[in-house]
């Protein structure tokens, strides 16, 4: 049996978007790179934080929080919550290497709106170029 990580995630959004998600599931726009890379963001077992996010992000819409059971196979788990973990170390080593080698050679476009987007591109690079890619 495959070992998995299971969490209850809370996604803050609007009522209209929540209805679309319920009909079609979550869809990620690969052009949108967030703080932790491309994807859908959840608060780990914290509906209040998801609600606060949706109220701040969607001020002129009806706020909504979706509760989702998320199952991640261990081999696809990339956990950087522990500053001393192997995954966190991999992130920082990769980030440093990309800055030193690829950016200086103009072989990688890491133009970003802010520093969070830069780190999001690093997460995407790791996930697309390692064993974490599905």
UniProtKB/TrEMBL annotation:
The name this protein carries in UniProt is PARP catalytic domain-containing protein
